Structure formats: C-alpha cells, structure tokens
Amino acid sequence: MTLWNPSVYLEFGSERLRPALDLMAQVPLETPKRIVDLGCGPGNVTALLQQRWPKAEVLGIDSSNEMLAQAKENHPEITWQQGDIAQWESSEPVDLIFSNACLHWLGDHESLFPRLLENLCDGGVLAVQMPNNFAAPTHQVIGDVLGHDHVLCPGFPVQEPEDYYNWLSDRTSRLEIWETRYRHILEGENPVADWTKGAALRPVLEGLNTQAEKEAFETAYRAKILEAYPKARDGKTLLAFQRFFLVAQK
C-alpha cells in the first residue's frame, strides 16, 4: 500500500484545490441529503462540500490512514471512514458521490463508473475529476528514467472522453464531460518535481526496493524535470496540467 504524506500533498494546496472547486460549481443539486467524498484524502475538499451543503450528511472515505488522521484532526465534525474505494458500496442510496483526483488510481473504469452510479438515488449525481497529464513530462519522465516498460510507470489510466460517454450515456439523465488545461504558476527551486512528489511519484518511490534506488531515481527525475520545465524570466515556473471532469446525473 502506498503511504501518503498529507503535508507533502498539500504543499500546493491552492493549486490542487482549484479543480475541485471547478467541479463542485457544476453539481446540479440544491439540497442533497447524503454526500460521499470518495477518496477524500486529508479532507480539505470534504470540508468544502459540508460548507456548501451544511444540512447534508457528509461522509469522507479513503484507504490511507495517514490522510484520514489529518482529516479527523482538522475536521472532527465530519464522519470519516477507512476503506478500499475500489470495492466501496453504500448501504443506502446517496445524492452525491464526489471524487476529486482519486479514481485514476483505480483500473477497470468501464465497470467502476457504472457501478458507482448504482449507489445513487434517482436524480443523484456522480461528480469526478481526474488528472489526465500522463502524456506530459510530469509523468513521461518517470519512464525516461526507469524505462517505459517498467512496472512502476503510470501508463494512461484515464480513458478517452468518448469511452465514458459510451459507458454512461444510456444510464443517466444528464451527462457532462470536459477537460481543462490549467497553467499553474509555481515558485521554488524545482517546483514541478516537488508537485509530482506529492502524488504521482509516491507509488514509484514506495515501489523501488532500496534507499539507494529511490535516491538515484529521484535525482535523475528532478534533473530531467528541471530541464523540461525551465524557469520564466521572473524565476517562477509554469506547469501546464490537464484534468478530466465528469458530472453524471442518474
């Protein structure tokens, strides 16, 4: 199991939060009664869901005990649950399943997404945001260092928009799919490498066998990323990062 470090993940908190807010703004529900934040991480997005719908019963679910510990400490008023999100099923239909930057870690989306819809009540909404930057240097440099056929390379876990449409269109009353390419302005010595260390690099570093292998990989990765994302004239770095969004109403 990958060990998540909440403080590293939240180092770029405002940039990581923006896609969640963009997704939340497109949820067509006024007064949902039951909300599940699937893959809630450290709970900062879950807390915003509770703020937007204060009368709703909100549940945050994550597989990481480290993330949930942070969530419980910062937001004790919300209900948190440890569990395998790949196998999650609700004991009763919910109004909103919200998942921000999580489901790309899981495979078999052709089965997963329709199954999640089954946990919604009539009129309920599945709202999903996933990173889709896997063709960019942030992810391709992993293969450049390890070899692109290495088992730890991330591959392309997010499918084409047309695939999600074909899987869900006949199961929903409303379906919206879009992609956004953000331009994050980052500060620091090698901020893009610091960004990926909080997410994409975690399973790679955990999967390497020895500390020497981890250090050698990270040194090579950071050097190549610094070359791929040079600083602008003012010393800041622009990170182009594409994300996939889906809002499906049952």
Average the pLDDT over all residues and give the rounded result. Answer: 92
Beta-strand content bin: 15-25%
Order of helices and strands: HHEHEHEEHEHHEHHHE
Number of domains: 1
Number of strands: 7
CATH topology: Rossmann fold
* Overall SS class: alpha/beta
Unreliable parts? 1-10
Residue share in helix: 25-40%
CATH architecture: 3-Layer(aba) Sandwich
CATH C-level class is Alpha Beta
Q: Mind summarizing the main beta sheet?
A: 7 strands, mixed
Shape: globular
Looking across the biggest beta sheet, what order are the strands in?
Answer: 3-2-1-4-5-7-6
Report the total helices. 10
- Which radius of gyration do the C-alpha atoms yield? 18 Å
CATH superfamily grouping: Vaccinia Virus protein VP39
Between the first and last Cα atoms, what is the distance in angstroms?
Answer: 33 Å
